[in-house]
Amino acid sequence: MSELVDTTEMYLKSIYEMMEDGVTPLRARIVERLGHSGPTVSQTIARMGRDGLLELEDDRKIVLTKKGVAAATEVIRKHRLAERLLTDVIGLSWVEAHDEACRWEHVMSDKVENLLQPLLKKPTSDPYGNPIPGQSRTPKAIKPVEEGVSLSAFFRKNPQGGEAVILRIGEPVQAVPGLLDELSAAKMLPGSKVNLRYDSADKDRKFATIMPGETDIEGENSVTVDESLFKHFFVKF
């Protein structure tokens, strides 16, 4: 697999995930997510536009074409199936599966993907609660996941915090060094009942404290999530 193809798939995956999380895809956000320079991102987006994968609207929003939607959906599906294979069959830890699947998504053939579906009993979500898109000759439009709300929306409705159930953990949260380890150690996985508290006392840093559902007292098992990640962490209440 060429580096050019890897880069294209990486960008498609990032755009898909932003759309799924209800975040407007912009070049500036790709810079933030992937750590690439502004000029590099602009050049890559321009090339992908020439390849017919996307278009730029007047407000700089990135819009995937039908070809781009199909390609992005395929990358996401292979990535999340790989995560399921790694955790459910091979036994790799929940903490390590995401990084490993980032390598597998670029080399998995369509044949292997088709064989994985029955092997994994046609899973509907990855280990982090994110939906696995189905196979279709005409991929569905990418829309924000309807179930649940982001932490941003949760705290707008519940400024003091409260109880909730973790639904899904988006890719930007998965990519933060050590954060999955903390969530795993505290047994705060998708489906877990938790207590949430918003902390804005420090003007330079605002964050959420996540605690096990059976207590509302911050302790050893509490985990903090920076406000910049709120839009990628989803709960229901």
TrEMBL record:
The record ties this protein, via PROSITE patterns, to: HTH_DTXR (PS50944)
Specify the species: Mobiluncus porci
Q: How does it assemble?
A: Homodimer.
The alphabetized list of GO BP terms reads: negative regulation of DNA-templated transcription
User: Domain HTH dtxR-type spans what residues?
Assistant: 1-65
Record PANTHER family: IRON (METAL) DEPENDENT REPRESSOR, DTXR FAMILY, IRON-DEPENDENT REPRESSOR IDER
Q: Please name the InterPro entries in this protein's record.
A: DtxR_MntR_Metal-Reg (IPR050536), Fe_dep_repressor (IPR001367), Fe_dep_repressor_sf (IPR036421), FeoA_core_dom (IPR038157), HTH_DTXR (IPR022687), Iron_dep_repressor (IPR022689), Transcriptional_repressor_C (IPR008988), WH-like_DNA-bd_sf (IPR036388)
Pfam families, per the entry: Fe_dep_repr_C, Fe_dep_repress
The entry lists its GO molecular-function terms as:
DNA binding; DNA-binding transcription factor activity; protein dimerization activity; transition metal ion binding
Alphabetized UniProt keyword annotations: Cytoplasm, DNA-binding, Iron, Transcription, Transcription regulation
Q: Where in the cell is it found?
A: Cytoplasm
What cellular component GO annotations does this protein have? cytoplasm
Q: Which domain of life is it from?
A: Bacteria
| Protein name per UniProt | Metal-dependent transcriptional regulator
Its family remark reads: Belongs to the DtxR/MntR family.
